[in-house]
Design goal:
- The protein is an alpha+beta fold.
- The chain has one domain (3-248).
- 33% of the residues lie in helices and 28% in strands.
- It is built from seven helices and 13 strands.
- The strands form three sheets. The protein has a nine-stranded mixed β-sheet. Strands 1-2 form a two-stranded antiparallel sheet. It has a two-stranded antiparallel ribbon with strand order 3-6.
- Strand 7 (92-97) and strand 8 (105-111) form a beta hairpin.
- Helix 3 (65-82) crosses helix 4 and helix 5 (116-136) packs across helix 6 (145-156).
- Bound molecules: zinc ion.
- The site of zinc ion has 8 residues, from helix 3.
């Protein structure tokens, strides 16, 4: 029986086998993953996030070979910026004083010189793959249909659009003593300040897609866009936002 690929809508005989939701290089670049080889699947059930451990990351058969091969080009490109060694070589590390604590400094990163569309498509492909994986095994969808249509459009079109569903990336190294640090998190739905977001954690980053609206969950500076990207750590995010607001007003 022929199958319809959910990304390109072509009719194909078979889907690619062993398709990863989060690519292998991201898993292998996540420190703790190297030791215990497992990822965490989070599910929102009645407003509670439930954790389930998955060995070697989620993989399955849910898109066509052609889409898989296009995504693998995007993965290769993105690895030049987000593999741990590449990131720390390419990103500029900046520190500013914490206005609320003279003994502390706040660190953030600037990343420039990437092809926005390729990085955006790469990240969108990961949320989409988790969604289509869920459907392929009869789990609840990750993305409701009204958002799915927009995500697929953003993924498939060539026009630059960074504001409809903005993406922000938080930096967090596994050594930070925050819950779950270092373990890979498969894409999950999370409510932040009343906005629905899709998030996953891999390498040293939370990749966060705001699917509620473009009205201000992230300040403009922290949105992935063609001109570049600023990244802050999870624990200094609030402080940076305050500092930025103060410096603007
Ligand atoms: Zn396809």
């Amino acid at each position: 029986m022929m199958k319809i690929c959910p990304i390109c809508k072509r009719s194909v005989k078979n889907f690619k086998n062993n398709s990863h939701v989060i690519p292998k290089w991201m898993l292998e670049n996540s420190k703790v993953y190297d030791v215990i080889h497992r990822t965490v699947e989070l599910k929102l059930e009645k407003n509670n996030l439930k954790r389930k451990l998955v060995q070697d990351g989620i993989k399955g058969s849910f898109i066509c070979e052609q889409c898989e091969s296009k995504i693998s080009d995007l993965e290769n490109y993105s690895s030049k910026f987000f593999k741990r060694d590449n990131f720390y070589r390419k990103a500029n590390r900046k520190t500013i004083p914490d206005k609320n604590n003279s003994l502390k400094e706040i660190t953030y990163y600037e990343l420039y010189g990437f092809d926005f569309k390729k990085i955006q498509k790469f990240l969108l492909s990961i949320y989409l793959r988790q969604h289509f994986y869920n459907l392929s095994i009869g789990n609840n969808p990750l993305i409701i249909s009204k958002h799915l249509g927009v995500l697929l459009k953003l993924y498939n079109e060539t026009a630059i659009d960074y504001y409809t569903y903005p993406i922000a990336i938080y930096h967090m190294q596994p050594s930070d003593k925050l819950k779950g640090g270092g373990i890979v998190y498969q894409p999950y739905v999370c409510k932040m300040d009343g906005h629905y977001t899709l998030q996953f954690y891999a390498v040293d980053f939370y990749f966060i897609l705001d699917i509620s609206s473009h009205l201000g969950l992230f300040p403009e500076e922290f949105i992935l866009k063609p001109a570049g990207l600023l990244m802050v750590s999870v624990d200094s995010y609030e402080i940076i936002m305050r500092t930025l607001k103060n410096s603007v007003s």
